[in-house]
Amino acid sequence: MTLTFPPGFLWGAASAAYQVEGAAQEDGRTPSIWDTFSHTPGRVLAGDTGDVAVDHYHRFREDVRLMAELNLGAYRFSVSWSRVQPTGRGPAVQRGLDFYRSLVDELLGAGIQPVVTLYHWDLPQELETRFPSGSAAGGGWPERETAERFAEYAGIVAEALGDRVEFWTTLNEPWCSAFLGYGSGVHAPGRTERLAPLRAAHHLNLAHGLGAQALRAALPARAQIAISLNPAVVRPLSDKPEDLDAARRIDALANRVFTGPLLRGAYPSDLIKDTASITDWSFVRDGDLAVIKHPLDALGINYYTPSLVSAATDKEGSPARHDGHGDSAHSPWPGSEGVAFHQTPGERTEMGWTIDPTGLHDLLMRYSREAPGVPLYITENGAAFDDKPDAEGAVHDPRRIDYLQAHLAVAHQAIADGADLRGYFLWSLMDNFEWAYGYSKRFGAVYVDYPTQARVPKSSARWYARVARTGELPAV
């Protein structure tokens, strides 16, 4: 049976500044933590960096034409903070803002809605390396000042683009910024601490609240303000009490550390208890939680794969991470290092992530219950496969089509079950720099030949274009 999505359902694709823009040292841009991290030997596979990426900075007009050919109704992109505000403070660089002004104009001219994400992991390096008064460990997100600087930056971008952009996302996947950047160290800035991730999580929450206030002050009333989370679908290995407790612990650190203050204005009591040996949470100041609980116009959900956990035994090694980006000697789960992660059964992508669409349905229904009245958007969903051109130069990726078909089918089911789901953003528009994996993993609907920067729409791109044009998911 053909599945028809509601009228007005938003069909889009997404990217992130450091993964696609390149032009790392042009027009006043200064290094971000990902520039520093990728240029540090041993941090990124094959020594890859985002210096050039897919050269979107110079090729954005070509890329927007591709988006139009793919019938996209929206393009979700992030702004490079250090391109706009090189030191993370002070006046903006107009040349940096001009790039985003031109991109937005090009999108609107093609009938594509621009969706701006203010922060997708690329903190200006100066905010990370600056040592605030009284801090021995360094700067960055563990420091309150970074949240305050983010609000200033949000206001700058809103003033520049607010007359043309109506959909804004403050942060993308703050869990990764906090717990992979400051706990396991597999993401920039590569710190491996226990307290810093918890401090970072709070200050990212605070940045969202302060940033939302700055946006609201600068934007027209019609503008929508959202945040994109990557909530974990945490399943216990068994119904044993110790495994159920392991799932509870990871749910607190992966999900409720953000949704607690965002939706209810409080951190979960069990999270505070679980981490009592690390912190008393005194970095949460009076008034912070009221700021964080700023009314949301929408909630973005990024989903790839579920997690399977249990209480650890002596034979089980150090815990893996739920996002599957490889092993780390350091845990991103402060206070819950004793939880063991297991590979879920089933077919896997090139990332090693199990393909399980039921997790997406679980999330959509969960947040329909937990955030009643808040529209939902799937702001990232996709898969990496080993895509290669054939002898004629075409790129066929039937496994990605199967993946998208299955996940869109459960999204449609969630709408039928009562979820107020308004849109879907494919991750990603193009192959690009895949963080610590460099250029070894391809998520794109459009193939990029990195030596020439030639773009080749894959068969999944043509398939998605038909879905976006008709609003219908074809029968399998």
UniProtKB/TrEMBL annotation:
Catalytic residues of the enzyme: 173 (proton donor), 380 (nucleophile)
Any one cellular-component term (Gene Ontology): cytosol
EC category: hydrolase
EC number of the protein: 3.2.1.21
Pfam family, one: Glyco_hydro_1
GO biological process: cellulose catabolic process
Source species, domain of life: Bacteria
Family of the protein in this entry: Belongs to the glycosyl hydrolase 1 family.
The protein, known as: Beta-glucosidase
Source organism phylogeny: Bacteria, Bacillati, Actinomycetota, Actinomycetes, Kitasatosporales
